[in-house]
Amino acid sequence: MVIMDLTSIQDPSFLKKMSVPELEALGADIRRFLIEKLAETGGHLGPNLGVVELTLALHRVFDSPKDQLVWDVGHQAYVHKILTGRTSQFDTLRQYNGLCGFPKRCESDHDVWETGHSSTSLSAAMGIAIANELKGRANDRAIAIIGDGALTGGMALEALNHIGAEKQNVIVILNDNEMSIAPNVGALHNMLGRMRSSRKLKHAREEVETLIKHIPIVGNSLERSGERVKDMLKSALIPGTFFEELGFTYFGPTDGHDLRDLLETLEYAKKIDGPVIVHVITKKGKGYRPAELDGVGTWHGLGPYKIESGEVIKGKVKGPSYSKVVAETITKVAETDERVTLITPAMSVGSKLDCFNKQFPERMFDVGIAEQHAVTLAGGQATQGLKPVVSIYSTFFQRAYDQLVHDICRQNLNVVFTIDRSGLVGADGETHQGVFDIAFMRHVPNIRILMAKDEEELQHLVYSALKYDDGPIAVRFPRGEGIGTPMSETLRELPLDVWETVADGTDVAILTFGPQVQDALEVRALLEGQVSVRVINARTIKPLDDVMLSALYAEGIPIVTLEEAALAGGFGSSVLEHASDAGQFPRVLRLGIPDRYIEHGGVNQLLEEIGLRPTQIADSVQQFVQVTNRQNV
């Protein structure tokens, strides 16, 4: 039975008039809606099915936006978007100019904090709570909703420490589903596992007091002996002591799918002054069998699927995924090089690292959502003669910038970075576009940066990086599948400072790398008979090919640099710097990502928006050559 038309919802205030059975029926409607809509658009199904009741309870108990809900990562905010009047936009979810898959302040006053990366919610909520106090809004509550996976992030632990020390009025909802993108790891995960099996603290506390009194012979004297001994015994018997020691009042564990229990617990928490933790146990994928049974993170975020079977609908694939090529190459090298280890911050599923883990589990280290730790852990291994590989997404690598600069490059340690999702990633939008890593790596001494034109060259670049023993080296590669280039079985080393002329030409030289080499070849074909285009595969982004650049300067040929990365401080900038240092003044046109954030949409749509589709590039190149020729007359 449908309780209401979800598109009629304008704000969550109506929830306060609903009975628990009506809320439960509404939750069933929302689950059904999400399963049906995401089958068409794709998206983060598992996380959102797991927070239906929790989101209903939060909006029932608190008064958003007066009370500020801060979602960690934000991929689990679809139910929140439904309850705040955006149901009718779900046909456009994660599509160009459509509804964002993460909280977006310009979409609604109820989205008070934008995010896409993990572990930021507690710091943001504390900042909001401080502002509430300073502005005389002490009764407004800041509520952070964070998953158990995100709690492993160092930033979250720093914020827990500060919130507890300052006794700030922040309510932390710990959404414990034992998963982030992949199954969680680490001691904190294990501690939460023990707490899940424990009884609620609000009941257990009184029971432990009674238990202490009834310990034979010593019970009464223990009770009289002061708080210290009692606290020691409580630590062994009561869940939540870890959080209470940090200064939080702990409630839980609470069944995250029992609305009566949730409402009661949140009402308790709302009345407490100072920091509060509400530990909620949820099931990722709740209500949809294929997602519930997912033990590896497939249903965390995915494309369209068939509702009846749960089969993911895949398009036609030309070649193997770039991630798979990288993982299999590392595994192959590790078979003969015992120094090779593999470290990842919770990206084992996305980067397809299972082949390495199955063969070398003792050399595989999934550190959870802890990018800074991952990078410095690799540095420590490198000092002892190992050959660590850090497998990391471009967007998450920026979180470990200081570790790259201070711990790895400054010591010139032999660490290999394989940087997944380099370039535009599409539907996840501005928080996930991998367009900044060249700019933030290029100016750091000692590191080399590589990117292959196709899957065949990629395996050889990864192999070459693993054979390189003179400092840190990074191999970038895009999201998605290769172009179908035949793969050789024998790996070979490639020179790490030499570019490749892919196609000759006399009027203009396009310097590019990665998938843009194919774009440049298409531009060449489009301009055939009008402009003679030379295409150069600049696969070593750093260092530049000094010999080839010097020859281009001497030839006087106009140069176009093309990159699916930030122009500011990027590859094109490095070419101009090289020319300036050489006392040369070539005609250079830089094409790349402009100085702004690129939002969500199909990759080709986004490229068209910024003028980087082959036909647009061809127009730019032709105009550039024409202007250059006129100036030379």
UniProtKB/TrEMBL annotation:
One of its GO terms (cellular component) is cytosol. SMART domains: Transket_pyr. GO terms for biological process: isopentenyl diphosphate biosynthetic process, methylerythritol 4-phosphate pathway; terpenoid biosynthetic process; thiamine biosynthetic process. GO terms for molecular function: 1-deoxy-D-xylulose-5-phosphate synthase activity; magnesium ion binding; thiamine pyrophosphate binding. It catalyses: D-glyceraldehyde 3-phosphate + pyruvate + H(+) = 1-deoxy-D-xylulose 5-phosphate + CO2. Residues 320-485 form the Transketolase-like pyrimidine-binding domain. Mg(2+) binds at D148, N177. It holds the Pfam family Transketolase_C. Keywords: Isoprene biosynthesis, Magnesium, Metal-binding, Thiamine biosynthesis, Thiamine pyrophosphate, Transferase. Thiamine diphosphate binds at H75, G116, H117, S118, G149, A150, N177, Y288, E371. It comes from the Bacteria. Its cofactor is thiamine diphosphate; Mg(2+). Its EC number is 2.2.1.7. InterPro entries: Dxylulose-5-P_synthase, THDP-binding, Transketo_C/PFOR_II, Transketolase-like_Pyr-bd, Transketolase_BS, Transketolase_C, Transketolase_CS. Binds 1 thiamine pyrophosphate per subunit. Binds 1 Mg(2+) ion per subunit. Pathway: Metabolic intermediate biosynthesis; 1-deoxy-D-xylulose 5-phosphate biosynthesis; 1-deoxy-D-xylulose 5-phosphate from D-glyceraldehyde 3-phosphate and pyruvate: step 1/1. Belongs to the transketolase family. DXPS subfamily. Catalyzes the acyloin condensation reaction between C atoms 2 and 3 of pyruvate and glyceraldehyde 3-phosphate to yield 1-deoxy-D-xylulose-5-phosphate (DXP). Homodimer. This is 1-deoxy-D-xylulose-5-phosphate synthase. It comes from Exiguobacterium chiriqhucha RW-2. The gene is dxs.
